[in-house]
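Homework-ish question, so no full write-ups if that breaks the rules, but can someone show me the predicted structure for this set?
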Amino acid sequence: AQSVTQPDIHITVSEGASLELRCNYSYGATPYLFWYVQSPGQGLQLLLKYFSGDTLVQGIKGFEAEFKRSQSSFNLRKPSVHWSDAAEYFCAVGALGGGADGLTFGKGTHLIIQP
Amino acid sequence: EAQVTQNPRYLITVTGKKLTVTCSQNMNHEYMSWYRQDPGLGLRQIYYSMNVEVTDKGDVPEGYKVSRKEKRNFPLILESPSPNQTSLYFCASSPMGRGPETQYFGPGTRLLVL
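A: Not a homework solution, just the prediction itself:
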């Protein structure tokens, strides 16, 4: 069965500093990986996704993520965070088959931005 | 505008009183799904549907029912809600292709069962 681990429950970063959120996955085949963001009181918004090809993927809002098969990781990065980036971030792995198995989510990382 | 809508957005009910949370999408997606989100547990899939009249259980289906009579709608039914079903619920949809597709999420329904 597929699984996703986000080892950091909370992360605090100063505004303007760089950010890296960790995500490790377990999946028997080629993983399809996603990062979603959930702002307070809001639904989930897709930041970026990896299906194949270039292992460094660019997303919205200045985020990027790098797929490393050897480490089973898909860490999310941003060079300089803004106060509006404070939110809950979820890493997810999906299955082949048009999403028939749905998405398996990590438990989320709560990002706090210090002024 | 392409979107997934859910109603109601907020609901307070009492144990045992049947309720339905509606989900509708206007993107002609075949695949629809329900998740619940609980603190420290992330999102877990309740039920999913790959097309009209085709539904299947996800990871946490107990206490829930769904139906898919029309392509655009996928209601979640709680026949006899209990306090442990207090949660934030998300509906999602995606096209069914030959590979994985991005799921689009509704705004969420926050349910409190007293």
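Now go work out the reasoning yourself. Hint: Residues 16 and 80 of chain B are 4 Å apart (CA to CA).
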